[in-house]
Amino acid sequence: AAWYAALTRGDGLDPKPAPVEEEQPDEVVEDDGPILPHWRTLYNPNPIAYPKWQGNLPRPNDLMSPLEVFFSEDILDVIVDQSNLYAMQCDPNKPLNLKTSELEQFLGTVLYMSLFGLPGTRMYWSKSSRVSQVVDTMSLNRWEIIKKFLHFSNNNRQNEDPLYKVRPLVDHLTSKLMSIPMVEKLAVDEQMVPFKGNSKLKQYLPKKNKEVGLQNFCFSWF
What we know:
Elements: H1 2-9, H2 38-43, H3 66-70, H4 73-90, H5 100-113, H6 132-135, H7 140-149, H8 167-178, E1 186-194, E2 202-204, E3 212-221
Antiparallel strand pairs: 1-3, 2-3
Protein name: PiggyBac transposable element-derived protein domain-containing protein
Domain PiggyBac transposable element-derived protein: 68-219
InterPro entries: PGBD
């Protein structure tokens, strides 16, 4: 009040400047790393430091196509021989005369049918739901005959192996899959194939989405 009164009387006093608040420095917050989820902090507050991957990715030339893995020439020859043999065992007067090229066409139509999922195989040849890629490749009668006599092993060589009818195919796929380059980190998981037929391999697992079927163990990598 005194300096304001002196200023109004003309004493030449400058007005008192307003006090300037000093800026406080920002608080330094220590970085404790990423914030972990609630469940992670309870059981494992310190994540495991995995070792650095030392492997090498496979070269493009080393990768095999699905055709080379599942339908190579050696297994196609086995299927052709066993199918022709089974047809002769059923009726010697009506040989199948299946060839490798025709078997490839049959397998191609089967894979192509899986993209549509029609409830009946004959619907692919009907006028209302005709699929030209299947009809133009093979006739319906020939397709059904090949399907009827398709075999992978000789029925006269039965043994205690529950997979004797598909043993050559299983051995072939096992050897091919083992040759595929795999990464360093792998995980083994279970897989259920729905199946309700008569088989010693059928299992009942009530905790699975598909309770009844064939249980497989498969690899997965990340």
